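Board notes (copied after class):
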Amino acid sequence: MSRRVHFIGIGGAGLSAIAHVLNDRGELVTGSDRSLSAYAQALKNAGVEVFIGHHADQVRDADLVIASSSIDTVNVEWIAAQEAQIPVLHRKDFLEELTTGFETIAVAGTHGKTTISGMIAWLLEKTDHDPSFVVGGMLPDFGANGKAGSGRYFVVEADEYDGAFLGLHPTIAVVTSVEHDHPDIYPTIEDVNRAFQDFVHQISELLIVNRNDPGSNALNVEAIDRITYGMGVEADWQAEEVKPNSAGGMDFLALHNGEMLGLVRTRLPGIHNISNALAAMAVGDAVGISFSAMREALTSYHGAGQRFEILGSVGNVTVVDDYAHHPTEIRATLSTAKLRFPNAKIWAVFQPHTYSRLKSLMAAYINAFVDADHVIVTEVFAAREKPNGIIDGETIASKINHPDVRFIDSFDNLVQELADQVRPGEVVVTLSAGDANKVGRMLLDELSGRKKGVGNEQENTQSI
């Protein structure tokens, strides 16, 4: 008889992926959240009962409760579970059970985890390995961010937040980068380094590190094998003759241990995605996938939702949505926009994320927008935090080093401003790990409405 597993905060990227896996395995899965996110909607479509709002009776008869890290002990469902003596676990505490019996491939690092995890899952899927996976973004090629497969590999996006990745004991792990982030959990870069060092000591066979990132490259465990990837540096996996292609992605020649393997074509724009592809290929090679099979799979991989996701174009105005919220990610995304749209003016719409991150990384945010022509800053997305009375969106906007920065606190006003100011041929990029990703679709709707209105006026004029 299957368990009933209830998720508090099921609409988040992390828990929703686990819920998919348990649902695929035949567990009775339910969950609740404050609103219906795209992740929660995908679970509903898969037959999972999702409650909007938290109520004590929703955990009744559950065998296990899994709670998001953003859920605290005063949540009514948490309290009800405790009173009913139902076990309540965080993601970290459940990962070992989730991955038991599999060869786990974990992807950790400050940046690039979702894209590389998705690439690896797709490499395995396209070569008949039928992997299980949990990743932090929707994968269009799978139509979900989690899946239970019948194969021996389980691909996990290993999130460092709240030490979640320390619940894993991977066979193979990639570490993409190690930078200061999540200062509410890791006050200093030394704290971050210690957490990653603890993580890599839990790997049983192979560590794959990024030679271009000092923090990643410094990691080592003598008892296991170590492989490197990088660009413009000596590494086991390298790329040469890098250039954009007609599909909007990147072409490069792949080298392994100095041997030229051949041309790789991807659909993903940006130099950083070539590095991501090298990491995925290092994993693919380690599990026995041929270069030709990897090349074919990478050519057909469509990336992950909110990772330079082109939402559409109306009136020759293109709208792109990206999850970037750390200064390094913002720089990479805007650099990619310039590469992908070399003749276009770029509008960056930035939603600052968490007060602790803004306070700790303020100096890096100031110069992160050099590749944008115009910058609009929204109010801070607080997530799990409360306003500190010191930093807000207007303060951030005033500190950014850029000739055209404006602060707009209302999404409705922001969309109207963009619709009035953006010209044909220009590109709008939303940068948000919060709820400002809705701005892109709101803008497309507004531009479509205006276009129809102009069309109707023209038709009316012609008919008079």
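Comment from the instructor: Confidence is low (pLDDT under 50) at residues 457-464. The chain has three domains: 4-90, 101-300, 309-451.
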